[in-house]
Amino acid sequence: MKFFFALILFTGLSTYCSPAAVIISEKEGPIGKDTSLYISPFREKNERCFKCHGQGRYEYTNENLGMQVKALMFPQRIIDRKKFYEANHKSFSCTDCHSEDYTKFPHPGQLRMGMSYNCLDCHGGDEKFAKFKFEGIDSDYHKSVHFKLEDEGFTCWSCHNPHEYKISIRDSKNLKETILYDNNICLACHSNYNRFRLLSDKEEVNIMKKHDWLPDLAAHFRSVRCIECHSEVNDSILVSHQIMPKEDAVRRCNECHSKNSLLMSSLYKFQYQGKSRAGFLNGIILNQSYVIGANRNEYLEWISFVIFIIVLIVIGIHIFIRIHK
Amino acid sequence: MSNKIYLYPGWIRIWHFLNALMFIILIVTGISMQYTDRKDHLLMVGFVRAVRWHNIAAIILIINYIIFVAGNIITKNGIYYRLKKQNFRSDLWIQMRYYTSGMFKKEKPPFPVTEDRKFNPLQKFTYVLAMYIALPLLIISGIGLLIPNMIITKLFGVSGLVLTDILHVTMAFILSVFFIMHIYTCTLGSKPLSLLGEIISGYHEAEEEE
User: Fold this and answer.
1) Is there a smaller number of Cβ atoms within 10 Å at the N or the C end of chain B?
2) The domain spanning residue B10 has which CATH number?
3) Contact B107/A at CB under 8 A
4) Is some CB atom of chain B closer than 8 A to the CB atom of A260?
């Protein structure tokens, strides 16, 4: 099982590490919009930063020594060009968010002590972003268990890496890949104890063991996001950000495996069309998956019911005649 | 006066009992998985418990089925399931007429049970359909649902998982109807409980000609 889970993660990683292409326009892709042809207006300007931060090794001229120095970039300061130009913030100049003083080298030391922007600094109170309801997301986040970790350094960026994050669920054409992408965001901390320990003193949690009560665990991890069970559904925002304490996580199978499946107001929210297809309840799920209890077929149910009643009537008549003849 | 014929050897009786028990467990747990509701009012045994018991009962049923098929190959019990072309339709009709009319007029069964004929033509036909067509399809589709990776992703643009489930649910329903009819026809012996007694004792009591 562990091997299988590792395979899922590996498949996910290899998906996002495929070779880059040059960017011209946008088209729909499996995870959100395909931005492989996009060219940033700040590409050349950003290259001043990527020259050093775009890979693990960089070179600079030490003017005091008068020599060229080669050094390794601190891993947390490496920004993947490909991922950046595919991310939501792909159209940004580095200095839109980072101080213009970073263009100086060596970078002034006090810049590190400055505050980073959070989502609402740019997205809050702006009509352009009103439809994404960032204020609602912020309110949800304040009720989330993650908010309690703010003093330990938890921020929006802990989950949504500003240099890489891609909104995926709204435009997803391949829900399985989206699920993998979104779950890997959670697993980046919850299956990496080094990252987890940055924010919490809790003991290491074995994700597989904690979820071993789920029948066919691998199928569940492949087919739903962590937040389906671990967040409070909020219809007023696009994706719930209220991560619940583990005690409040969904544990009743019929929350999803039922006619009124929870999945229709979460995972399939953006694909829900309100009608069953070919008699299947919650038919939209069938594009990607099959959920026992949630995907019953109403036509088959009616046919079965009628046949069942006929059988009982025939038996009843037979018994009646046997008794009275 | 009656003659006793030993028709149901020990292995058949144990197989039959296990089969019946697994059928009941599978029907109850199968319905519990399908007809769940978030408010629980239709939930019968709980989803997790239903899944666990459905899987366990299914595995026992499969092993039991293999024993049944092997037993029918090895022992003479297999001959009772061999359909013959000769008079096939007319025999079915005669038996059907007996069930719908003759038995109410106290007529004698047109195909009395003997050592060479355990089942009447209608019984034989339905048992062959149930045991050699519906049950294998139910088992194969069930194994597919138990190990979904085995199922082809799409067939003619339709999800293989959905098709497998439809096949499974349909066969399950057909066999459930068969199960109900089987229980009822089990009361059609000389006395309402005589056939039930036979599958417990193994002996059929053949009534002598007057």
Assistant:
1) C
2) 1.20.950.20
3) no
4) yes
CA distance A49 to B162: 51
A317 touches chain B (CB under 8 A): no
| DSSP letter assigned to residue A143 | T
A280 φ/ψ angles, rounded to the nearest 5 degrees: -80, 130
Nearest C-alpha neighbor of A267 from the set A200, A204, A178, A181: A178
Whether residue A307 and residue B177 make contact (CB cut-off 8 A), yes or no, is: yes
**Mean pLDDT for the stretch of residues B81-102:** 94
Can you give the residue range of the structural domain that contains B154? Answer: 2-207
Contact A290 B165 (CB under 8 A): yes
Chain A nearest-CA residue for B157: A287
B23 phi, psi to nearest 5 deg = -60, -45
SS3 B159: strand
- Residue B150 CA to residue A32 CA, distance in Å, equals 30
**How buried is B47 (Cβ within 10 angstroms: 0-12 exposed, 13-18 middle, 19+ buried)?**
buried
The domain tally of chain B equals 1
- Asked if B177's CB is within 8 angstroms of A308's CB, the reply is yes
**ipTM more than 0.85?**
yes
pTM of the model: 0.75
Q: Do B36 and A216 touch (CB under 8 A)?
A: no
**Mean of the per-residue pLDDT values of chain B:** 90
Torsional class of B202: left (φ above 0), alpha (ψ -120 to 50), beta (otherwise): left
Report the distance separating Cα A75 and Cα A56, nearest Å: 7
